[in-house]
Amino acid sequence: MELQTLLADFFKQDDFNQLAIDSAGILGCPLMIVDETFHIVAHHAPADFHDKVFVHAVSRGEITYEASAMFSTNEEICAGRAAYMTLADSPYPRRVAPLCTANLRLGYLICVDVDGHLHTLEEAAYDAVESVLAKQLFMEVNRQGRLFETAEEVLESLLDGCFSAEPYFRLQASTTYLADFHPKAFALIDLKGYHSLYLDGNRLKDELMYRFYESHPFLYRGNVLMFLHEAHNRYALHSLAEEFHLKIVISPPLGNLFGLPQLYRCVKEGLDILAEASEDSDGVVFRASALSTLILLCKYKERTDLIDEKVQALAANDTKKGSLYCETLYRYLICGHSLKETCEALFTHRNTVLYRLRRMKDDCGISLEDPMQHANLLLSVSLLLLQTRGAAFFLPQQEI
């Protein structure tokens, strides 16, 4: 009978709040429906239900960055299936299901498992509720005859490759702030180290908007993208990263917004490497250009066949004797064969470095007199050090 009521209200009314009430009655739990930008479209909970995370999300009209990142990167949810997960600061687990129709993911249904009964419900009940809510969401986003209504939706679709030509993008952006928006660059922020202790608000988002004028931060595939203008303060970015334990990568100059997807790929690859390489760091900020060589190396990390045999022999010697010949070779090459700079980079005496260079030639046949071999040696030793020392070895000094 409750399912019939849901269907009747769907066909007779145009009221998302009523559908939320009906759905909560069928599933027997507090719930909220959020759209693809993680804003709350509708919700319902009994009067005696008390959960700080739920209440504060409703009061702000959106869920927090860290919860959004969990949903958008969860493997089960990305595959179109529901997933159970726990949120910090709440005693109740959530069942989160993507709401999809016409091969489009339009939002999420978040059910709060107050008494542990959600696992016992039949999938048919969930399927029926999710199908109706997804179709209602589809009607909502098409209400004005177009799929994209907000700037965030336009940007997400741009990054997803939905616009085949710039004029189509400009048309969709014409009714948003994007119509006359000319940022100089953007920053991509990894949230894995961030956890908000401020339940009364999404503090990180508030701080981004307060400290960086017209940054327009939004969540995309688990990371926060914010725009930067000519006068952006790099000190403020570093301060933000340290305070909230963030990993941040700054893009190259952004010529126009339609070029955003091309730059995004490089920045995202750099951020993924940075997040893994500096996992224990409190907060770091790098420009994508400073990570470009590392990004390229990581693409060929498994290509041991590209490593010169002489360098492999040098590495075997390091493993056997616990020496640092490979790092010495790498430093010597990137320092332009400057003995002084190599010694400073290694914190090693001049005579020790000279001895190592001589042993490389005598034991492994590595000649540093032939300029034609330098590129091959540098690539080989770089790949080898990436495999043995990890990406963190290649991270440059942070610029402030």
How is the biggest beta sheet arranged?
Answer: 5 strands, antiparallel
Can you tell me the CATH topology of the largest domain? Beta-Lactamase
Q: Which CATH architecture of the largest domain would you pick?
A: 2-Layer Sandwich
Strand % is 5-15%
Round the mean pLDDT to the nearest integer and report it: 88
The number of distinct structural domains comes to 3
Distance between the termini: 64 Å
Question: What would you report as the Rg, rounded to the nearest angstrom?
Answer: 27 Å
Helix run count: 17
Look at the structure and give the CATH class of the largest domain.
Alpha Beta
What percentage of residues falls in helices of 4 or more residues?
A: 40-55%
- Low-confidence runs of at least 5 consecutive residues: none
What's the name of the CATH homologous superfamily of the largest domain? GAF domain
Write down the overall geometry: elongated
> What is the number of strand segments?
10
- From N to C, what is the helix and strand string? HHEEHHHEEEHHHEHEEHEHEHHHHHH
Structural class: alpha+beta
How would you summarize the topology of this molecule?
Elements: H1 2-12, H2 16-27, E1 31-35, E2 40-44, H3 52-60, H4 65-73, H5 75-78, E3 83-85, E4 94-101, E5 104-112, H6 123-141, H7 151-159, H8 166-173, E6 185-190, H9 203-211, E7 218-220, E8 223-228, H10 234-244, E9 247-250, H11 260-277, E10 284-287, H12 288-299, H13 309-321, H14 325-334, H15 339-346, H16 350-364, H17 374-389
Parallel strand pairs: 9-10
Antiparallel strand pairs: 1-2, 1-5, 3-4, 4-5, 6-8, 6-9, 7-8
Helix pairs in contact: 1-2, 1-6, 2-6, 11-12, 14-15, 14-17
